[in-house]
């Protein structure tokens, strides 16, 4: 193929891509460290992608391991096009906004606002911020000796302003970021100046005297922050968000709360903002609020939301350890497991000593001694004279250590640690707990954070009034005015879609009411078949007779719901011990297959009864079934087995049906081919997500998952693939990959290619349109993720067949944002659901959304408890030219096709399924796991595709080849095993 034709094919009259900024930004501020030039992405027009004949499908589009190497120009299509940074004059003429730089990237412009649905007004937790009319200056700050603590830096600058504001700073009140930058409204009366500042230390020195530290501070003019360009951007007349201007305003508005409260990320916490709540094991929750300035269609907006997080209780260390272990620690010696738990919980925690009266020196814990306090000695002079810790404390401080059987805390330098007995230490207040919470603590924290909408709205307004932005000296200095009223926003309530059920049921079609419906009088649109099944019971509280009765009721419900389900198992239910899971599963599977195989039959399903608290049993079971035996399983907890409610059995039957290849329901519009840009030609919808290990798990991998629809026009069934990759790597590495095979040469594969082939096998057609919903990407990663993953999609398509490039729409789905929507009138029964939340289907694409780009907030679900969080959808790429209505309606309607329940869900199902699949794959890692369920052996990251050919490759920056996950069995991959 000629390269010239290829590039023409991908041009769209949308002009040149443009970088976008924003707080937390997508791109370095001008004047800051520059990123590599952003290449140009040309978007394909639909006309460029008429159906292409397959040529020789058996060779070009048949197997994941196909050795057909894509043509060079197509393999590097995006990469090569990125080098072309000139805009066609005629294309540029159609652009509404001219890019500021030809070397920057542009996301699609909003294609107008949506019109579908019933119009209404909602309130959002955004507060209008008036753009100041000030001359902002940025200064570089250098503090010597350098310290890593922002707190110390702030204390130095606070002292400097206090001493020199009137005399040397021209009466200016500067805003400081705690690091290297200082901002002022108007110039300081110098270009560069040196200051000497003396700080009295919090900690006492020898003899009780306060230690004093001297710092040299150099302040030097760096740049002027241009608010004119920010105004242009907010008006839609400039494509770049001036990052540094937004940063200045953000820092200014954070100055006062930073001095008042405990800052954590973008939030502020204090015990004064609400009652502390105990979380157990020495932790407590503090209330707080999130604050961020954002560019929106209504101008600058301050986004405020309530939050809670875990802090370490400021307890004496002895009490903390007693709570942690849930026992009196003087009653019996500590076990090795106890020591590990204590060390893990206390490492890095700051304590103050209590044995010296008012001299409260502070230390950071670095470890725990292996010996008891009574056995510890240390050198007291250069001759190496040793003294016992117990004796030293008695002689020096007159303090008699009571708990001599406990280890000491090691504090300070790890090379030459100091020993402190636990009983002389108290945990310093205000330390956030950043490690993983256990299930009980998570439940307790959720209980605290779960607020009804009206209550949350009241707290947000109270926070705004309490912070008194109108009286904030920094806001006044910089001329920033913040409204004290929630933004009122135009919204629309999209109608629920009609759902299709089987014609043999009494109700063939169903229109959900307020985001929910039920299975009464309905049969699954495609009931699956379970001819051969077995049951294993791991719960000692469930008798064999109860297990048989439960299985019988479940089989009955599956049949009522429309499945073909043999009421008799292949073998009678068997009881087993949880610690024998692998042996029992394999033996029972073997026994069943011995009976079935002579007749050419397969085992369709395993039903498992689990104890309510089953530890690692669930994960072990799923790993063995899906990667070793090749069977789908349905787990049921003991409490549900005894209760055996109809609602529960109906929900379980929905999950079983999709696990054996059935479909529960489909959209009526899909069957009648009425979905714009989906029904007219074969369309595949992808969902992708990456889940990262919990904080503190330094070596466990991140898990990527990709699912893709396998039916068209129905778009209800999704096959899934999972892959482990380098620790905290957000880009999905195995979307497309190549490797060298000794016999076949260059071989191509990866998750996209495998799922495209799977779609072709299932439907008999190749996708002519791709819609890709990508979950879990923060704003700062938009550019990077789009560039890398769109390139992988392109290469995967090209590797299947020359010239095969279906148009792609790439949409990021975000749930971790802080925008909340409230009914304009909480008493209006037509505007809220039973939980007091806005109605499902509420969509917002004005005022609080991006000034020019294609994004929207959609609350697609009914609230159950607390305040509903709308999903935020941001279109990063659109070659299918979706209108706002078409994409919003498609997204909302898909939320009614989630297989596991008869409710609409909060994020689009392909993204939800990808999240479930990624979560499931954590169980597939090697069994030698830590107590948090992650691989801890070795520091090497893991990588490799499940179901793809596992060749070891290097992840960017990983430096080491990584181990693939065990492969999913073929029959498992084809069905929705993750449900």
TrEMBL record:
<dbReference type="InterPro" id="IPR003100">
    <property type="entry name" value="PAZ_dom"/>
</dbReference>
<keyword id="KW-0678">Repressor</keyword>
<keyword id="KW-0687">Ribonucleoprotein</keyword>
<dbReference type="InterPro" id="IPR024357">
    <property type="entry name" value="Argonaut_Gly-rich"/>
</dbReference>
<dbReference type="InterPro" id="IPR003165">
    <property type="entry name" value="Piwi"/>
</dbReference>
<dbReference type="InterPro" id="IPR036085">
    <property type="entry name" value="PAZ_dom_sf"/>
</dbReference>
<feature type="compositionally biased region" description="Gly residues">
    <location>
        <begin position="12"/>
        <end position="30"/>
    </location>
</feature>
<dbReference type="Pfam" id="PF02171">
    <property type="entry name" value="Piwi"/>
</dbReference>
<dbReference type="Pfam" id="PF12764">
    <property type="entry name" value="Gly-rich_Ago1"/>
</dbReference>
<keyword id="KW-0943">RNA-mediated gene silencing</keyword>
<dbReference type="InterPro" id="IPR036397">
    <property type="entry name" value="RNaseH_sf"/>
</dbReference>
<dbReference type="Pfam" id="PF16487">
    <property type="entry name" value="ArgoMid"/>
</dbReference>
<dbReference type="InterPro" id="IPR032473">
    <property type="entry name" value="Argonaute_Mid_dom"/>
</dbReference>
<dbReference type="Pfam" id="PF08699">
    <property type="entry name" value="ArgoL1"/>
</dbReference>
<dbReference type="Pfam" id="PF16488">
    <property type="entry name" value="ArgoL2"/>
</dbReference>
<feature type="region of interest" description="Disordered">
    <location>
        <begin position="1"/>
        <end position="74"/>
    </location>
</feature>
<dbReference type="Pfam" id="PF16486">
    <property type="entry name" value="ArgoN"/>
</dbReference>
<feature type="compositionally biased region" description="Low complexity">
    <location>
        <begin position="1"/>
        <end position="11"/>
    </location>
</feature>
<feature type="domain" description="PAZ">
    <location>
        <begin position="316"/>
        <end position="429"/>
    </location>
</feature>
<feature type="compositionally biased region" description="Polar residues">
    <location>
        <begin position="59"/>
        <end position="69"/>
    </location>
</feature>
<dbReference type="InterPro" id="IPR032474">
    <property type="entry name" value="Argonaute_N"/>
</dbReference>
<dbReference type="InterPro" id="IPR032472">
    <property type="entry name" value="ArgoL2"/>
</dbReference>
<protein>
    <submittedName>
        <fullName>Argonaute 1B</fullName>
    </submittedName>
</protein>
<dbReference type="InterPro" id="IPR045246">
    <property type="entry name" value="Piwi_ago-like"/>
</dbReference>
<feature type="domain" description="Piwi">
    <location>
        <begin position="605"/>
        <end position="926"/>
    </location>
</feature>
<dbReference type="InterPro" id="IPR012337">
    <property type="entry name" value="RNaseH-like_sf"/>
</dbReference>
<dbReference type="Pfam" id="PF02170">
    <property type="entry name" value="PAZ"/>
</dbReference>
<comment type="similarity">
    <text>Belongs to the argonaute family. Ago subfamily.</text>
</comment>
<dbReference type="InterPro" id="IPR014811">
    <property type="entry name" value="ArgoL1"/>
</dbReference>
């Amino acid at each position: 193929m000629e390269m010239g034709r290829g590039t023409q094919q991908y041009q769209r009259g949308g002009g040149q891509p443009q970088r976008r900024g924003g707080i937390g930004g997508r791109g370095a501020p001008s004047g800051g460290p520059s990123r590599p030039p952003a290449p140009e992405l040309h978007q394909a027009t639909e006309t460029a992608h008429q159906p292409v004949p397959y040529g020789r499908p058996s060779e070009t589009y048949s197997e994941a391991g196909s050795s057909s190497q894509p043509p060079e120009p197509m393999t590097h299509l995006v990469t090569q096009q990125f080098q072309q940074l000139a805009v066609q004059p005629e294309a540029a003429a159609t652009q509404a906004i001219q890019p500021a730089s030809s070397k920057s990237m542009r996301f699609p412009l909003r294609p107008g606002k949506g019109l579908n649905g019933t119009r209404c007004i909602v309130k959002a937790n955004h507060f209008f911020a008036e753009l100041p009319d000030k001359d902002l200056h940025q200064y570089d700050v250098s503090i010597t000796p350098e310290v890593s603590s922002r707190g110390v830096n702030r204390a130095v600058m606070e002292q400097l302003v206090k001493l020199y504001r009137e005399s040397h700073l021209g009466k200016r009140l500067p805003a400081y970021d705690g690091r290297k930058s200082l901002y002022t409204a108007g110039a300081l009366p110098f270009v560069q100046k040196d200051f000497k500042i003396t700080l009295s230390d919090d900690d006492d020195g020898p003899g009780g005297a306060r230690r004093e530290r001297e710092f040299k501070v150099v302040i030097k003019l760096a740049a002027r922050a241009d608010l004119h360009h920010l105004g242009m951007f907010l008006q839609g007349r400039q494509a770049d968000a001036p990052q540094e201007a937004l940063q200045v305003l953000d820092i200014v508005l954070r100055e006062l709360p930073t001095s008042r409260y405990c800052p954590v990320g973008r939030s502020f916490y204090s015990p004064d903002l609400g009652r502390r709540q105990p979380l157990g094991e020495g932790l407590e929750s503090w209330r707080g609020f999130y604050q961020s300035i954002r560019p929106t269609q209504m101008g600058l907006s301050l986004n405020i939301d309530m939050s809670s997080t875990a802090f370490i209780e400021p307890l004496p260390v002895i009490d903390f350890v007693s709570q942690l272990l849930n026992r009196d620690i003087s009653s019996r010696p500590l076990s090795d497991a106890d020591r590990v738990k204590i060390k893990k919980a206390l490492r890095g925690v700051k304590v103050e000593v209590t044995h010296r009266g008012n001299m409260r020196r502070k230390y950071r814990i670095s470890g725990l001694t292996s010996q008891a306090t009574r056995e510890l000695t240390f050198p007291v002079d250069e001759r190496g004279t040793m003294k016992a810790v117990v004796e030293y404390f008695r002689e020096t401080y007159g303090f008699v250590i009571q708990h001599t059987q406990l280890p000491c805390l090691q504090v300070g330098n790890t090379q030459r640690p100091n020993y402190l007995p636990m009983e002389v230490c108290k945990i310093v207040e205000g330390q956030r707990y950043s490690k993983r919470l256990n299930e009980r603590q998570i439940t307790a924290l959720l209980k605290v954070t779960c607020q009804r909408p009206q209550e949350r709205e009241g707290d947000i307004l109270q926070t705004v009034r309490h912070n008194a932005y109108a009286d904030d000296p920094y806001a006044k200095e910089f001329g920033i005015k913040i409204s004290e009223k929630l933004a009122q926003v135009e919204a629309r309530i999209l109608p629920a879609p009609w759902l299709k059920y089987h014609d043999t049921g009494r109700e063939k079609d169903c229109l959900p009411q307020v985001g929910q419906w039920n299975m009464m009088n309905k049969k699954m649109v495609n009931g699956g078949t379970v001819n051969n099944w077995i049951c294993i019971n791991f719960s000692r509280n469930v008798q064999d007779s109860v297990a048989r009765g439960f299985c019988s009721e479940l089989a009955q419900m599956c049949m009522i719901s429309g499945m073909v389900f043999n009421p008799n198992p292949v073998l009678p239910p068997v009881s087993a011990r949880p610690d024998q899971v692998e042996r029992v599963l394999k033996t029972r599977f073997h026994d069943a297959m011995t009976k079935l195989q002579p007749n050419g039959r397969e085992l369709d399903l395993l039903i498992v009864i689990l104890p309510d608290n089953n530890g690692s049993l669930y994960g072990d079971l799923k790993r063995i079934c899906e990667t070793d035996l090749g069977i789908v399983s349905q787990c049921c907890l003991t409490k549900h087995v005894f209760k055996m409610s109809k609602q529960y059995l109906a929900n379980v039957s929905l999950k079983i049906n999709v696990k054996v290849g059935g479909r529960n329901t489909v959209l009526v519009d899909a069957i009648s081919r009425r979905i714009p840009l989906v029904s007219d030609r074969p369309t595949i919808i992808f969902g992708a997500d990456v889940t990262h290990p919990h904080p503190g798990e330094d070596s466990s991998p991140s898990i990527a998952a990709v699912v893709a629809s396998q039916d068209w026009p129905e778009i209800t069934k999704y096959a899934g693939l999972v892959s482990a990759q380098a620790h905290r790597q957000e880009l999905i590495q195995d979307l497309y990959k190549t490797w060298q095979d000794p016999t076949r040469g260059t071989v191509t594969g990866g998750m996209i290619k495998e799922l495209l082939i799977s779609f072709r096998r299932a439907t008999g057609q190749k996708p002519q349109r791709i819609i890709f919903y990508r979950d879990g990407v923060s704003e700062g990663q938009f550019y990077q993720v789009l560039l890398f993953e769109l390139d992988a999609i392109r290469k995967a398509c090209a590797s299947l067949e020359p010239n095969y490039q279906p148009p792609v729409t790439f949409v990021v789905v975000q749930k971790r944002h802080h925008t909340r929507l409230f009914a304009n009138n909480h008493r209006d029964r037509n505007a809220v659901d039973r939980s007091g939340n806005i109605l499902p289907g509420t969509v917002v694409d004005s005022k609080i959304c991006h000034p020019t780009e294609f994004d929207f907030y959609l609350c697609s679900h009914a609230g159950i408890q607390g305040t509903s969080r709308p999903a935020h959808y941001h279109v990063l790429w659109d070659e299918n030219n979706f209108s706002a209505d078409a994409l919003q309606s498609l997204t909302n309607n898909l939320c009614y096709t989630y297989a596991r329940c008869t409710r609409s869900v909060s994020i689009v199902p392909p993204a939800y399924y990808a999240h479930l699949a990624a979560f499931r794959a954590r169980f597939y890692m090697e069994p030698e796991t830590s107590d948090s369920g992650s691989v801890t052996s070795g520091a090497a990251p893991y990588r490799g595709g499940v179901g793809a050919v596992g060749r070891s490759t290097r992840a960017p920056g990983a430096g080491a080849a990584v181990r693939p996950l065990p492969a999913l069995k073929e029959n498992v991959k084809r069905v929705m095993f993750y449900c």
